[in-house]
Write a structure and sequence with these properties.
alpha/beta; elongated; 26-stranded mixed beta sheet; glycoprotein; disordered N terminus; binds 2-acetamido-2-deoxy-beta-D-glucopyranose; about 900 residues
């Protein structure tokens, strides 16, 4: 009781928000053309608001526990229901009743564990039933009996211990039965009886631990065309047994990969004699010994897969009997013990002589000692031979190397990755039919005299890329005028500038790769006459000099006449100049890559004939401006542009047209926001080009002038405003002074004795002690000196403000004792200051002395008292020294200030 309570409370609490969430989340399903995709939505319920006419419903990767038939009433048109990756543990028979048109039901990766006779009783139209990765351990009676239309049944990755899916013949239309990754150990006749009326193209039993094939097991099946038993521990004897059981069946395809068949003998496949087997897969078997005549029983075999084995020796009888094999894969098939030469795999002469119908032979990735004079003899239909990375020591291709292929109509020969260092004259002279010859990724280092290719009368493609070095002569390709593709990438090409051009005979050339050769010298006639050339790769060379104006004799026009060129790659050549006529003849150019050069300014009209350009790459150059007269024609039909990582100058003149084009084009420009950034002017550095505001940019001159005038006016105005803001007080102060002087308020310039006091002292109440201490001694010293001290000298009864005005007038100077206290003193502030300043303006600027007892910043002074240090002469500004010994100097300065004549200057 308590347990069930504990169980229910969280689930109830959990379901409530889910219910709310999911009701609203159903409309998240993507519906398109009667297909509803509700996958990955954490659904716990069947959506009930989808269009009723959907035919495909995808409910995969959700949290469904069941598929209640009632909830599907609405979707009666469904033909495909995919409920994979849920937690469905039970299936209601009525589901199919609600979905009469259902053809494909996928319930893989669920928790189904039991199928009853009724489960699929209404699924009459079902053609595919996917139940892999469930928990079905056994099938009782006949759950699939009514599935008369079923073609494919997948029960792999369950826990089945038997193949028995029914007690009576059924599934008459079944073609594929997938039972891999179960726990089937024995194939029993009676357990396959239910397939008595079926004709299977594929019975998949891989990854079961099969230990026994009981007599007649395969004969129980109506017809069996394909059987997969990969990844099972069969070994030689069980394999032999298997083949005997397959005798007289209609088996055509047998896959026995990874079955530990380490050896075959003349009996292993004997049972297959009475079959029409056409495909046999024996890959990944550690097969080391192929006994003589092992395949003698397989005269119908067409495809034989032997890759990933460990064969030590092919004798002249190993392949005896494979008269009809067309395809043989021996990739990585032979033993690899390379350290000891004695253990190298051995292929006897005439080993392939029986394979008279072989068309395709792959021997890649082996460690074979070499080719002998009769290694391939007898392969009279061979068209495709791949020998990439096949040999441990095929250093030299001599005129006898391929003699055993003399009677083969070979079309393709792949010799890459074999450490070949030399091709001797006539090496391929036996291969008159050859169309494709791949010699790439070897160590060839030699002069190509042309004799190497003797006899290759039908050759179309030669790959020589990635070799040590190749030195050309004018005759290098004289004997192969049929060549259409020539790949010479990274071969340290020498003498490309031979005259006449080494390429002159190649009138049919359409693809030429000369990239990564560090070429610096080529003649302007190197490509002359290659009128069919469509693709030219010249990237990663050093051709910059050829296009310089300063090149002796002028720029070299090596692209002239290439009227059919479609793609041109000139990346990474150091180009900093392009002659205006460089691309003049390339009328059909569709793509050009000029990235990773040093191009800055391109001549206008350089792309004038490239109206058909679809792709243009100029990334990582030094382009600052993109102007219409240069790029207009090239951009016209462009569908792809790469100009990323250039130092764009974000001014109207440089990129306004470009930005305008970017914002209106459909051309694909990737990484526009992040890889197209302004470099200059400084204020735009790092700013995305696409966001550059072009609205102030217009192409008319008057507008520009207006713009300049506007800008200047704005600048001057700004300057004035700023000047007034920071220096306005100075202007108004001196203005006042000037006005007063002009109006005749001249300094009365009274003599000192005409004043009653030497100075009126303005200070904060808190600072009175300091004032007493410092001024009264001065009075005592000099009897003529008298200060007006408010506390002492104000007559009793006189109103304070009047007294102040009066006293200030009667004093020759006014001293401000400036401290933080004074700044806070509300009475002192403003009024007294105003009086003093007024007097100063009327009379004399020298009449004010500021004594700073503390460090007060100018802005505070201005803020509190409307005074600034700048208004006064420096001798009128005194700072009370911290050090005692300087006090004497302070008094001296004060006396100087008091004695100074009041004057404006
Ligand atoms: C099925 O539909 C009923 C009624 O609409 C609903 O209450 C129930 O939650 C649904 N069940 C599922 C699993 O969708
Ligand atoms: C299916 O139903 C939707 C609306 O629910 C409608 O727009 C669409 O045309 C219908 N499709 C067909 C083939 O009837
Ligand atoms: C359903 O969706 C899953 C995942 O999105 C996908 O793998 C699966 O193929 C889809 N099923 C069908 C029948 O389209
Ligand atoms: C099977 O589908 C067809 C239409 O394709 C339909 O006419 C027929 O009634 C369906 N069969 C059953 C048993 O529902
Ligand atoms: C093999 O094929 C032939 C001809 O196609 C046929 O007559 C013969 O019955 C087939 N053998 C088996 C065992 O199916
Ligand atoms: C199989 O080979 C053995 C020798 O290894 C030989 O004695 C026997 O006759 C061969 N059987 C057949 C059917 O060729
Ligand atoms: C192969 O070359 C050798 C010399 O290297 C020559 O004697 C021989 O005649 C050549 N054979 C063929 C078939 O060209
Ligand atoms: C030759 O074989 C290598 C390695 O399998 C492969 O990459 C290359 O494309 C092949 N060459 C041709 C021309 O098919």
């Amino acid at each position: 009781m308590s347990r069930s309570l504990l169980y229910h409370i969280p689930s109830f609490l959990g379901l409530l928000p889910f219910w709310i969430l999911c009701t609203s989340s159903t409309n998240k399903c993507a519906v398109r053309h009667e297909v509803a995709d509700c996958s990955h939505l954490k659904l716990t319920q069947i959506p009930d608001d989808l269009p009723a006419n959907i035919t495909v419903l995808n409910l995969t990767h959700n949290q469904l526990r069941k598929l209640p038939p009632a909830n599907f009433t609405r979707y009666s048109q469904l033909t495909v229901l995919d409920g994979g990756y849920n937690s469905i543990s039970k299936l209601d028979p009525e589901l199919c009743q609600k979905l009469p048109l259902l053809e494909i039901l996928n319930l893989q990766h669920n928790e189904l564990y039991q199928l009853s006779d009724k489960t699929f009783i209404f699924c009459l139209n079902l053609t595919e039933l996917h139940l892999r990765y469930n928990l079905i351990h056994a099938v009782q009676s006949n759950p699939f009996k009514s599935l008369k239309a079923l073609i494919k049944l997948d029960l792999s990755h369950n826990g089945l211990s038997s193949t028995k899916l029914g007690t009576q013949p059924q599934l008459e239309n079944l073609q594929e039965l997938l039972l891999s990754n179960n726990k089937i150990q024995v194939l029993r006749r009676e357990e396959l009886d239910f397939l008595g009326n079926s004709s299977l193209t594929k019975l998949e039993l891989s990854s079961n631990q099969i230990k026994e094939f009981s007599p007649g097991c395969f004969h129980a099946i109506g017809q069996l065309f394909g059987l997969s038993l990969n990844d099972a521990q069969l070994g030689p004897s069980l394999t032999e047994n298997l083949c005997l059981e397959l005798s007289n069946t209609s088996i055509q395809t047998l896959s026995l990969g990874k079955t530990q068949l380490y050896r075959t003998s003349n009996m292993t496949f004997a049972g297959l004699k009475q079959t029409n087997l056409t495909v046999l897969n024996l890959s990944s078997n550690t097969l080391s010994v192929i006994g003589n005549d092992s395949f003698a029983w397989l005269p119908h075999l067409e495809y034989l897969f032997l890759e990933y084995n460990n064969i030590g020796h092919l004798s002249s009888r190993s392949f005896y009997g494979l008269f009809n094999v067309r395809y043989l894969n021996l990739r990585n098939s032979f033993t690899k013990q390379s350290n000891s030469r004695a253990l190298l795999p051995k292929i006897d002469d005439f080993s392939f002589q029986w394979l008279t119908h072989l068309e395709y032979l792959n021997m890649d990735d082996n460690n074979l000692p070499g080719i002998k004079s009769d290694t391939f003899t007898g392969l009279v239909q061979l068209q495709y031979l791949s020998l990439s990375n096949s040999f441990s020591s095929l250093r030299t291709l001599a005129n006898e190397t391929f003699v055993s292929l003399a009677r083969s109509p070979l079309l393709v020969l792949n010799l890459t990755k074999n450490k070949i260092s030399k091709i001797e004259s006539g090496a391929f002279s036996w291969l008159g039919h050859l169309k494709v010859l791949d010699l790439g990724i070897n160590e060839i280092g030699q002069e190509l005299t042309g004799e190497e290719w003797r006899g290759l009368e039908n050759i179309v493609e030669i790959y020589l890329s990635y070799n040590r070095y190749l030195q050309l002569t004018s005759n290098s390709f004289a004997l192969v005028p049929s060549l259409r593709q020539l790949m010479l990438r990274r071969v340290a090409l020498k003498n490309v500038d031979s005259s006449p051009s080494p390429l002159l005979p190649l009138r049919n050339l359409t693809i030429l790769d000369l990239s990564n050769n560090n070429l610096a010298n080529i003649n302007d006639d190197l490509l002359e006459g290659l009128e069919k050339l469509e693709i030219l790769d010249l990237q990663h060379n050093n051709l910059a000099r050829l296009w310089k104006q300063a090149n002796p004799g002028g720029p070299v026009h090596f692209l002239k006449g290439l009227s059919h060129l479609h793609f041109l790659n000139l990346e990474s050549n150091g180009f900093d100049e392009i002659p205006v006529e460089a691309f003049k003849d390339l009328f059909q150019l569709k793509g050009v890559s000029l990235g990773l050069n040093n191009l800055n300014i391109l001549p206008s009209s350089v792309f004038d004939n490239q109206g058909s350009l679809k792709s243009l790459s100029l990334q990582k150059n030094l382009i600052t401006s993109v102007e219409k007269n240069v790029f207009g024609p090239a951009f016209k039909n462009l569908s792809y542009l790469d100009m990323s990582f250039n130092p764009f100058d974000c001014t109207c003149e440089s990129i306004a047209w470009f930005v305008n084009w970017i914002n209106s084009t459909h051309t694909n420009i990737s990484e526009l926001p992040s890889h197209y950034l302004c470099n200059t002017p400084p204020q735009y550095h790092g700013f995305p080009v696409m966001l550059f505001d072009i609205s102030p940019c217009k192409d008319s001159a008057p507008f520009k002038l207006l713009c300049i005038i506007n800008t200047s006016v704005l600048l001057i105005f700004t300057f004035i405003v700023l000047f007034i803001h920071f220096e306005g007080w100075r202007i108004s102060f001196y203005w006042n002074v000037l006005v007063h002087q002009a109006l005749g308020f001249k300094e009365m310039d009274k003599q000192p004795e005409q004043f009653d006091y030497a100075a009126y002292i303005i200070h904060a109440y808190e600072d009175r002690d300091w004032v007493w201490e410092n001024f009264s001694p001065m009075e005592e010293e000099d009897q003529t000196l008298r200060f007006c001290l408010e506390e002492r000298d104000f007559p009793a009864g006189v109103l304070e403000l009047e007294a102040i005005v009066d006293s200030i007038k009667r004093s020759r100077k006014t001293i401000f004792v400036i401290t933080q206290n004074l700044l806070k003193d509300s009475l002192c502030k403003r009024f007294k200051v105003h009086q003093a300043v007024q007097k100063a303006i009327e009379q004399n600027l020298d009449s004010i002395i500021l004594i700073f007892l503390e460090e007060i910043p100018d802005y505070k002074l201005n803020h509190a008292l409307c005074l600034r240090r700048g208004m006064f002469k420096s001798r009128c500004i005194l700072n009370w020294p911290v050090q005692k010994e300087r006090k004497h100097a302070f008094h001296h300065k004060l006396q100087v200030a008091l004695g100074s004549r009041n004057s404006v200057h």
